[in-house]
Amino acid sequence: IVDQLAPLDQAWRTTTDINDNWSRVVEIGFSQDPWAPLQSPGHYNDADMLVVGHVGWGSPHPTKLTPDEQYTHISLWCLLGSPLLIGCDLEKLDAFTIGLLSNDEVLEIDQDPLCHQATRVGGKGDLRVCAKTLEDGSRAVGLINLGAQEAVVEANWTDLQLAGPQRVRDLWRQRDLGIFPDKFEAAVAPHGTMLVRLFPAR
Q1: What distance in Å separates the CA atoms of residue 125 and residue 95, rounded to the nearest whole number?
Q2: Across-strand partners of 153?
Q3: What are the tens digits of pLDDT across the range 23-52?
């Protein structure tokens, strides 16, 4: 009996139920820092299911999240290393939702073997910078704009405990952005996120 139940002990909910409301996604996504020390290989903090696509509880309907809000939702859950449970009708997946759920470079952040959970390391007000260390020593960093207007979000190497130039790769667009000596900044859409990976420049 113990062996049969053991898998149930590998993940636990850290929140009450989610719904496809922007404020709820923000509330859950940015209340996870206290649980970060509990996450490790085989032990996962579950921030609840993904509310993208044609969500399927109650009265099934297209998600109320905007496209930028959906990018932020997926980016945050991958940074957190949360189990990615799809809460939508798979028969009604459109091309946009398939793209959200099948970007291998983004999913790699969630599935990193270290199983670290990202925590907030910078940003002020509605601007947030969240980061975690990956198995190869690189950093996954989310530059997040919770505000209603486009804004420049800045990630400083000192906040990330990095030294020296870093190569920055945009994970959603799967392209390198260049080498930056001491920080990276980008204009981020309202409720949007830029998800990048930082590698030491050789």
Answers
A1: 34
A2: 186
A3: 999 999 999 999 999 999 999 999 999 999
Supply 136's token pair: 């190869």
**The predicted structure's pLDDT at residue 142:** 98
pLDDT over 60 at 130, yes or no: yes
Give this prediction's pTM: 0.93
Burial of 148 (0-12, 13-18, 19+ CB in 10 A): exposed
What is the full DSSP assignment across the chain? -HHHHGGGGGEEE-SS---S-HHHHHHHHTS-GGGGGG-BTTBEEE---B--SEE-SSS-EE-SS-HHHHHHHHHHHHHHT----B-B-GGG--HHHHHHHH-HHHHHHHT-TT----EEEE--TTEEEEEEE-TTS-EEEEEEE-SSS-EEEEEETTTTT--S-EEEEETTTTEEEEEESSEEEEEE-TT-EEEEEEEE--
Q: How far apart are CA 121 and CA 141, in angstroms?
A: 9
Q: Give dist(CA 132, CA 168) in Å, integer.
A: 15
CB 135 within 8 A of CB 113: yes
- What pLDDT does residue 3 have? 37
Q: What percent of the chain has pLDDT over 90?
A: 89
HSE of 92, CA atoms in CB hemisphere, 13 A: 13
What's the farthest any 2 CA atoms get from each other in the chain?
55
